[in-house]
Amino acid sequence: MKRDEAIGRAREYLLPTSLLSDIVPAEEGPVIERADASVVWDTEGRSYLDFNSGQMCSTLGHNNPRIQAVIREQSAVLTHASTVYYNLPQVELAERIASINDAPLRKSVFGESGSDSNELAVLLARRATGRMSIGALSLSFHGLSDATRAISFSAAAPGYGPAMPEMFAIPTPYCYRCPYESEGKGCCMAPLHFGMETLDKQSAGLPAAVIVEPIVSAGGVIELPAEYLEGLRRELDRRGALLIYDEAQTGLGKLGTMFAYQAYGVQPDILTISKHLGGGIAISATVTTDAVAARATANGFSCGHSHSSDPLACKAGTASIDEIVENDLPQRALAIGRRWQDNIRALQQRHEVVGDIRGRGLLQGIELVRDRRTKEPAAGLATDVYRHGLANGLMFSVRGRHKNVLRFVPPFTTTDAQLDQAAEILEGSIRKALG
Ligand SMILES: Cc1ncc(COP(=O)(O)O)c(C=O)c1O
């Protein structure tokens, strides 16, 4: 089927839902037909370097051969099973996840998406502490189920009705645009103290937990400073509250360690993993300590969706972890990240509009500004760069509070030649957008 026919049928039978519809509506973009490693092709045979890794779920590279093989093998044995009994791939995956985490993060429960892994984390924190209130960063994105929409402050949109109660925004330590005076310890301590103070005042009793992304991804690729996380850990410990890390975008090797918390040295009580956990197959995990698990279980914690322990998805999860460990993909992420960073730093030398460069490994962003001194956000320009990039064979995304951050998530399979080619396309797109 060619593009025109596919778009015609989509108009007839699909609801438009794209989060980037204000930048390029789905029906103006390509219709994707197939993919291999870091490249996707549309119905017209045009190729694109996929610096979005699909929806960041194909970071192992599209159509990873090990994932293909386990899908073939497992689908002949057991695809789906009851969630009220254990199945072998489910047990194996839980043990494998414990093996790549630091003690005491050892107990897992599985879901099918980033949203449900975070919804489970909130539920778990509430059941374990017996408290209700949850804090999340003001530029957070944790999913679009109703519960996670309430803690996705970067996606807040009118018209969805009242959000789930007892979810509160705390300020994001956004160093490039920090509105707070420095307290002499680095400006990130001010958002921490204001955040905890407002959370205490709004919470019904003490808070249950705070959830953060170690690099705030959709909010604009904002790296949380280590001292912010250390301070947050201390503040939560003081209140007997839990720390939840959503590592959908930062986990499983993308930043050079298996998980971002291992590089920061600040451990969460609950960790959520999704995106490329299944190597392209839908599966997520919520991981916690024996102590939190025991408290939640004693308080009657139970959960489960029909597909949440599917053996097919669990097998893909274990295979994806094997692929990451055996091929030392965290090191590969660092190498890709260094080369990409060199490329975009060179662009920054040549183009005033490249205001800030952030992120590491396979999660990096460029904040575009009209003027480096005033930092006036260049949102329209980011849209134009995106459109030119797409027209010239490069896919990435546009995120951030002002919709002026270009976000790049190339797969682990991306070659040096592809990184250089992407940088050329990007520079050409910036030049065209600047007219
Ligand atoms: C950090 C983070 N958490 C959660 C989610 C939601 O994941 P899903 O779309 O699989 O529900 C996303 C999606 O992009 C995300 O970036």
Give the secondary structure arrangement, pairings included:
Layout: H1 3-13, E1 32-36, E2 39-42, E3 47-50, H2 53-56, H3 65-75, H4 88-99, E4 105-111, H5 114-129, E5 134-137, H6 146-149, E6 167-170, H7 189-202, E7 209-212, E8 215-216, E9 222-223, H8 226-239, E10 242-246, H9 260-264, E11 270-273, E12 284-289, H10 290-298, H11 311-326, H12 329-350, E13 354-360, E14 363-368, H13 379-391, E15 394-395, E16 397-399, E17 405-408, H14 416-434
Helix pairs in contact: 3-11, 4-11, 5-10, 12-14, 13-14
Q: What is the level 1 CATH name of the largest domain?
A: Alpha Beta
The biggest sheet amounts to: 7 strands, mixed
Number of helices: 14
- The total beta strand count reads 17
Q: What's the overall average pLDDT, rounded? A: 96
Q: Catalogue the ligands.
A: pyridoxal-5'-phosphate
How much helicity do the residues have? 25-40%
For the largest beta sheet, what order do the strands appear in spatially? Answer: 4-12-11-10-7-5-6
Beta-strand residue percentage: 15-25%
CATH topology of the largest domain: Aspartate Aminotransferase, domain 2
List unreliable stretches of 5+ residues: none
Structural class: alpha/beta
Number of domains: 2
Provide the CATH architecture of the largest domain: 3-Layer(aba) Sandwich
